[in-house]
Design brief:
The protein is α/β, with parallel strands linked by helices. Among the domains are: 89 residues, Spore Coat Polysaccharide Biosynthesis Protein SpsA, Chain A (Alpha-Beta Complex), CATH 3.90.550.10; 97 residues, no CATH class. The protein has twelve helices and nine strands. Strands 1, 2, 3, 4, 5, 6, 7, 8 and 9 form a nine-stranded mixed β-sheet that branches. Strand 1, helix 1 and strand 2 form a beta-alpha-beta unit. Helix 5 packs parallel to helix 9 and helix 6 packs across helix 7. The chain is globular and about 60 Å long. The chain starts with a strand and ends with a helix. 43% of the residues are buried.
Length: 318
Amino acid sequence: MLPKVSIIIPCFNALPFIKQTLESVFNQTYNNLEIIVVDDGSKDGTIEFLKKLGKSNLIVKPNIGKGACAARNYGLELATGDYIQFLDADDFFTPKKIEEQVKLLEPNTTKIALCSTVHFKNIPEEGVIVDRDFLYSTDNPTKFLLNLYGAKGEHNMVQTSAWLTPRALINKAGLWDETLHKDQDGEFFCRVVMQSKGIVYAPNSLNYYRKHVGGSNIANQKDKKHLESQWRALNSKKEQLSVVSETKDFKNAFALQFKIIAINAYPQFREMHKQAIDASKGLGGSPYLPVLGGKLIESVKNIFGWKAAKLLSYWVHK
C-alpha cells in the first residue's frame, strides 16, 4: 500500500482562494492523501463551503484565534500520515507534485523533498520562478542552508508549501514556534532540514505562491513585532548551524541576513538597525543591497546610499 501523506492547511477567511487550493489537492495523481483543514475562525463562508464538499478524506477542525503556527501544530496532532505536507490556503500545486516527491523520498526516508515555487499575483501563468539556482539534491543539508541564506552573496527561501517531509524528521525537530510572527516558516524549515540527511529536488513539480496585492503576506510585514520575530528566527537558524560557525560560508550567509534586518528596520527602529548592523559587521559585513523602490528611490540609493533612499521611501509612504 502507498504510504499516506497528510496535507495540513491552516485557514482564515480563505473563501476566494481555497477552492483552487483544494482542487489542486483533489487532482493530485497520488491517491493516499489525508487532508486536514484547521480553521482559525473564518467569517466569510469558508467553513460552510468546506462542509458541502463531502470528501471522506477531508478533515475540518476549528482552532479559533490561535494563528497559523498553532493551526499547523494542531494539524500535526491530528495527522496520521507517513509524510507531512504543509499547504497555505491560498496556494496550490501542479498535479504530480506529491507523487513525484514521494517517489524521491521512498528510497531516501531521512531526507526532505523540495520543488520550485512560482510567485504570482493574479495570473499564475504570469508568475516567476527565482529559486532554481538554490534548489538541488544533496547529502549536505548544512551547505544547502548556507547557500540558501547567502553564502555566495545572494539569498532565497523555500516557501512553506514547496517541501514534503517524512513525519519522523518533524518528530525530531519539534513543533512550529507559535510565538514567532515572521519567518516562522524559515525557522521551522531550518530545524527540520538539520535533522535530515539531505535534500532531494523534484525539478518537474511546482508550487504556486500567491503574492497578495498590497503586501499582506507575512513576508512583507516590517512592524516592530515582525522584525523582532525575524531577529529571533535568525538567531535560531544561527544556533542550528553553529557547528560550522568558523567557516567563510557561515559568516557570509549570516552577515547578509543580519544586514537584511538592519535595512528593514531603518529608519523607524534605529536601535534594532544598529544591533543588526553590528551583528553583520561582526561576521565580516555584507555588500548586499536590495531593490528599495521605483526609479526615484533607486536613483537616490545609487547616488547617496541606501540609508538616504530608505529615508525618502519612508517619508513618501508616510
